[in-house]
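Ligand-bound model needed. 2-phosphoglycolic acid.
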Amino acid sequence: MSNEQRTIVVANWKCNPTSLEQAEALFNSIKKRVGDSKKVEVVICPPFVWLPFLMRASASAKSFGGLAFGSQNCFWEQFGPFTGEISPQILKNLGCEYVILGHSERRQYLGETDEIIAKKLKASLKAGLKPIFCIGETEKQRKQKKTKQILKKQLDVLGKIQNLKSNIKNLNIAYEPIWAISTANGMAARPDDAKQAKILIEEILYKELSTQRPTVRGIKILYGGSADSGNAKEYIEAGFDGLLVGGASLNAKEFIKIVKSLDKI
Ligand code: PGA
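Prediction:
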């Protein structure tokens, strides 16, 4: 099975774990059990600082023991006087393949705007990274039936990216309804509802935006928001190309269960 056909399962560790020992233990447990997955591409996105340690601990510099690595953010320039920033080129040179961009937590707590996200998308594609571009509506917006409008606004940033067409295969979109992220009671979106949102995203991408860019077909669309081993399969069966997993990716047993459940489909 080629990489393009495999289901993607992304582990978004967010600001966890707080020690290298814990990060290595979590990574090693995951790698041992799902590093050889045939149908699933597992992407580990730890905090920046753990990345080189985990990469070094992996089998070969090329394959990282069957897993891919991603970062949870990056800057919009490749190098220069930008104190505290990590550029897409640094990540690429380190061996990262993916980068999560536009996550709702960064939009909410770090003030990331659509404009900033557009610049980061552009720079990441230029460096050869595969962005996982997060979009999604709040509970209030959903209740007001503004989901399509919000998704459209968020997706509109793609129109600002001149190098999109030549890199379209590298783009992944994660539909993450904000009301379903990190819920204490595991309140994920119902697969049927998520599927409706995926249809809206495709409509926006393929009908409204494709007038300028007929090549947008081929973008992978993932689901994220309280995904776990109990519901993972349902999202893939509903048509999603993969999952962005937060909380459940910090529990090796649970995360392995998710990957295994998709390896059987
Ligand atoms: P969650 O997080 O799985 O804990 O809801 C998903 C995400 O924010 O990417």
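Residues 12, 176, 181-182, 224-227, 244-248 surround 2-phosphoglycolic acid (CB under 6 Å).
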